[in-house]
Design goal:
By secondary structure, this protein is α+β, with helices and mostly antiparallel strands. It is built from two helices and two strands.
């Protein structure tokens, strides 16, 4: 069993993707986000084609 524990700060597209990939490898991950709701200005709401490809490679593409 892997004893590493990781904290990812920020649940935007990059932080959430990193936490997901680490968890899939069996690594204990805590994902922290300071905002408790989505009533804020978004960043990263659009993905370039390479970003879409990354999500597809993670198994998160359109079915």
């Amino acid at each position: 069993m892997d004893e590493r524990r990781i904290v990812v700060v920020g649940a935007g597209p990059a932080g959430a993707a990193l936490a997901y990939l680490l968890a899939r490898r069996g690594i204990a991950v805590t994902l922290l986000e300071r905002h408790t709701d989505f009533a804020r200005e978004f960043r990263g709401e659009a993905l370039m084609p390479s970003g879409v490809d990354a999500f597809v490679q993670m198994g998160l593409g359109a079915q």
